[in-house]
Amino acid sequence: MTKENLKTILELHLKYLNGLPGGKKADLSRADLRWFDLGYANLEGANLVWAVLKGANLEWADLKEADLANANLENANLEEANLGGANLKVANFFKAYLKKAYLKKANLEGANLEEANLEEANLKGANLKRANLKGSDLDGANLLRANLRRTDLRYANLETAYLVGANLKGTDLRYANLENANLEGANLEKANLKNAYLGGANLQNVNLEWANLEGVKKYD
Question: How far apart are CA 131 and CA 112, in angstroms?
């Protein structure tokens, strides 16, 4: 993929989105876009299945409802990118930068977000079932009613995260930091909270049935 070809694809996609003659929906499936600068690009609804975006700049990009299933976004910059309703199933976001990204109702089932930066990201209603979030930074993230069933959150930073009504059934939270997190009404049935830190966390109406609370710390 050359920069010239990509420019043409983006121009035709914009026409497609605006309903103009000659427009064509972007098909970048399996495209090699590693290290490309796609900052502020409009790829709403585009096909990026299996695309390679390793190290790419997607800052402020519009990827609303785009299909990025199995895409490789390792070390990519997605700061404040719009990924609302996007299909990100089994995508690789290892060490990706997603600070303040908009991921409302995105499908991240089985995605790899290990050591990703998701500070203040909006993940309201997102599907993160069986996703790998080990060592990720979710400080201040909004996970209202998110599906986190059987998600790997070992060593994750969830300080001040908003997890009201979230489903964390069977989730692995060993050594996770949940300081001042809001877990009101969350489902933590069968969750593993061994050695997790819950100082200042709101646990009102939380379901902890069969949860592993061995070594949980609530105070320093």
Answer: 6
Low-confidence ranges of the chain (pLDDT < 50): none
In whole angstroms, what is the distance from residue 84 CA to residue 108 CA?
A: 11
**CA distance linking residue 168 with residue 172, whole number of Å:** 9
SS3 5: helix
d(CA 19, CA 40): 20
Partnered with residue 155 across adjacent β-strands are none
The residues, any chain, with a CB within 8 Å of residue 42's CB and separated by 6 or more, are 10, 13, 14, 17, 61, 62
Q: Which residue type does 9 have?
A: I
Nearest Cα to 143, choosing from 197, 106, 90? Answer: 106
Confidence at residue 220, expressed as pLDDT on a 0 to 100 scale: 60
Write the CB contacts of 100 (distance below 8 Å, at least 6 apart in sequence).
79, 80, 119, 120, 121, 122
pLDDT in tens, 37-56: 999 999 999 999 999 999 99
User: With a threshold of 0.90, does the pTM exceed it?
Assistant: yes
**Taking Cα atoms as reference points, which of 152, 112, 108, 109 lies closest to residue 134?**
152
Kind and range of the H or E run holding 15: helix 3-17
Tokens 């290290």 -> residue: 35
Identity at 149, one-letter amino acid code: R
- The amino acid present at 145, given as its one-letter code, is R
What phi and psi, each to the nearest 5 degrees, are found at residue 7?
Answer: -60, -45
